Amino acid sequence: MIIVHHLGVSQSERIVWLFEELGTPYELKRYERDPATGLAPAEYKSLHPMGIAPVITDGALVLAESGAIIEYVIAKYGNGRLAVSADKPNFADYLFWLHFANGTMMPSQMTGFIESLLGVSSDHVVLQALKARVDLAFALIEKQLGETPYFAGSEFTAADIIMGFPLMTMRAFVPRDLGPFPNLRNYLKRIGERPAYQRAMAASDPGMTPVLG
Ligand SMILES: N[C@@H](CCC(=O)N[C@@H](CS)C(=O)NCC(=O)O)C(=O)O
Fold it and tell me: Does the pLDDT of residue 121 top 90, yes or no?
């Protein structure tokens, strides 16, 4: 049985959601963050040399990193579901959003988050440019969701799952007014109605209200 090691209110919610969408059996193991530091507890840190969430174990395999876990699970247990194959016209869109989530969106949100955690602000041109990437990202997301109902086209895919964290839970840490983004608001309403998303969030972080609005 695959074990999804979920750290409270973290990117590992993606993997719980993935398993709920696929209907593949899994065991969920929850860990609370260290109340003093907000970081993963020692038990979580011992799972993988990086000590960050998500981590799954599948027999002897210990795998970290959201994108790697998502691709691994889909390839091994998905039977073609939630992915877009290379022969489809929207293959490149699927790849783009699958990688954009952690390659660009999360790092640019993290820049502002770290700045607020440290209580510093700077008009340094590089910092400002990094933070401006979030504005560009939201504009790009709004455009995409005005053209297609899901990130990779007409069907819900793993690109929607990996994009979910920066668009929803991450906004609890880095607030963002969604007023100017009606396509995104409409999309998040539909995501929030998905039974698999609701089951995943209820199991992952029962005390938390999903950040949909
Ligand atoms: N790119 C990594 C990021 C992992 C990451 O930063 N996880 C955070 C939670 S969202 C974490 O484990 N923080 C606790 C810690 O660093 O101890 C992934 O997607 O797997």
Answer: no
